[in-house]
């Protein structure tokens, strides 16, 4: 039955295509969410995956539809992560550049800085909760280990450990190409 749906969808049958979308949308969502770890991004990715599926359906060679679709989904999610990583990297470079420039900013420069700060805050909010406060306090607010430890009512060593683990988490989950 699935093969018949695929053939109908290939022939342009919208109803058959919708049935395939309904059948696989949860599986596609879980696959892309596993890569992206963000519900909104995963929802956007699912729509884009099904568009890619529709546009590529004529290339499908009856070699395992589910595997073929999952390959499209995972590859698309990886591409999205890489793009986001490049954007974050550019934002970080811009922030570093802005920090080195000590001239009066024009209005467009102020707007760009504001957008970059929002991007950095968004990325920090993607960190696990137990690391978020330490990263924000140390890098954004430029607090010392002692200040953070006092605010969180923990030992200085705990702050150092959390900071180290947060860096490891970022290295593991945020590849260079994501920024």
**Major beta sheet, specifics?**
none
Number of helices: 8
> Strand fraction band?
under 5%
Low-pLDDT segments, ≥5 res: none
Q: What's the average pLDDT?
A: 83
The strand count comes to 0
- End-to-end separation in angstroms reads 43 Å
Instruction: Give Rg in angstroms.
Output: 22 Å
The computed structural class is mainly alpha
Task: Map the helices and strands.
Layout: H1 2-10, H2 14-36, H3 39-56, H4 65-100, H5 107-125, H6 129-140, H7 145-152, H8 156-173
Helix pairs in contact: 1-2, 2-3, 2-4, 3-4, 4-5, 6-8, 7-8
Structure at a glance:
With 179 residues, this protein is mainly alpha-helical. The protein has helices at 2-10, 14-36, 39-56, 65-100, 107-125, 129-140, 145-152, 156-173.
What key phrases describe this protein's structure?
mainly alpha; about 180 residues; about 80% helix
How does this structure look, described?
- With 179 residues, the chain is mainly alpha-helical.
- The protein has 8 helices and no strands.
- α1 crosses α2 (14-36), α2 packs across α4 (65-100) and α7 (145-152) packs across α8 (156-173).
- The two termini are 43 Å apart.
- The model has no long low-confidence stretch (mean pLDDT 83).
